[in-house]
Amino acid sequence: MKKDFWKNKKVLVTGGYGFLGTKVIQKLKDRGAGQVIVVDIRDYDLTKEKDVQKLFEDNKDMDLILHLAGDVGGIGYNKKYPGKVYYNNIMMNTLIMEYAKRNKVKKFVGIGSVCAYPKFAPIPFKEDDLWNGFPEETNATYGLAKKMALVQGQSYRQEFGFNAIHLLMINLYGPGDSVDLENSHVIGALIRKFIEAKNNGQKEVVAWGTGKASREFLYVDDAAEAILLAAENYNGEEPVNIGAGFEITIRDLVNLIAELTGYSGKIIWDASKADGQPRRCLDVSKAKAFGFSARTSFKDGLKKTIDWYLEAVKK
């Protein structure tokens, strides 16, 4: 951690009111960042060039941009809105970086996604395998749009000397996550399902897919720390994986969340729902070069997330 790095820095954060963004904003304040500008969609629609142009006219001389904004959900959301997901992400990424370059922003931190990896990449996913195949179909448009942000940053570095870095983020979870049963990622939706089933005396809960697929999850506070450490210490052109370096099958995940929420009913698997990518697990060794490794154990993180949800539903 370099607290002095942020002193007198003017930092713009897109997606700063979101799940990950709120944690990043808090860490920036804790590190004593000089000025933090949070982009609000009510003021600037980042998919529209006139709004992005106005954003940079209103905020001059920025030192760093942390580009966290994105349009993404779980498998159901991505399958339902593939065109919208592609368009919104490709436009946001392209416009923000182009105007950052035009306005001589000193450093640009782009947040990519594990969804950019090929469907059948060897486990654990290594950055060198990123281009060796097409992404898993249910989230391909999101993954490809994020991949183009990497290409844009590398191209701008080569032609203009623009310092853009790209972090390939694994699935996140933690307090503040979406718990929408249709559009959220798996952990938030499962926590809500099991707690509601327990409270309502339901004898069974339906889980999507076969349970055979595996996933890796990173606690959101750890992800925020990784972003700031990369901003402080990493200036390379190659993408870097950000994750916890483990995998768990969806079946084991479902059973663990049922146990932690105290649900003892039956679990029914709906195999008509897509499993998504067969396996996901990152090689996280490169991130250690700039000082990052995940600190929160998965079970502890789940307990904190469940406790947060139980408090939230009381309000």
Short characterization:
It is built from ten helices and twelve strands.
Provide key terms for this protein.
single chain, 315 residues, alpha/beta, Rossmann fold, 6-stranded parallel beta sheet, two-stranded parallel sheet
Describe what this molecule looks like in 3D.
With 315 residues, the chain is an alpha/beta fold. It has helices spanning 3-6, 19-30, 49-58, 75-80, 82-102, 140-160, 186-200, 220-233, 250-261, 298-314; strands at residues 10-14, 35-38, 64-67, 107-113, 164-169, 171-173, 204-208, 214-215, 217-219, 240-242, 248-249, 266-270. The chain starts with a helix and ends with a helix. The relative contact order is 0.14. The model has no long low-confidence stretch (mean pLDDT 94).
List the helices and strands and how they pair.
Layout (H helix, E strand, L loop, with lengths): L2 H4 L3 E5 L4 H12 L4 E4 L10 H10 L5 E4 L7 H6 L1 H21 L4 E7 L26 H21 L3 E6 L1 E3 L12 H15 L3 E5 L5 E2 L1 E3 H14 L6 E3 L5 E2 H12 L4 E5 L27 H17 L1
Parallel strand pairs: 1-2, 1-3, 3-4, 4-5, 5-10, 6-9, 7-12
Antiparallel strand pairs: 8-11
Helix pairs in contact: 2-8, 3-5, 5-6, 7-9, 7-10
Task: Tell me the CATH superfamily of the domain at 3-173 and 216-246 and 280-296.
Answer: NAD(P)-binding Rossmann-like Domain
What is the CATH architecture annotation of the domain at 3-173 and 216-246 and 280-296?
A: 3-Layer(aba) Sandwich
Order of helices and strands: HEHEHEHHEHEEHEEEHEEHEH
Low-confidence stretches: none
Structural class: alpha/beta
- Please give the largest β-sheet: 6 strands, parallel
Number of helices: 10
Shape: globular
Please give the order of strands in the largest beta sheet. 2-1-3-4-5-10
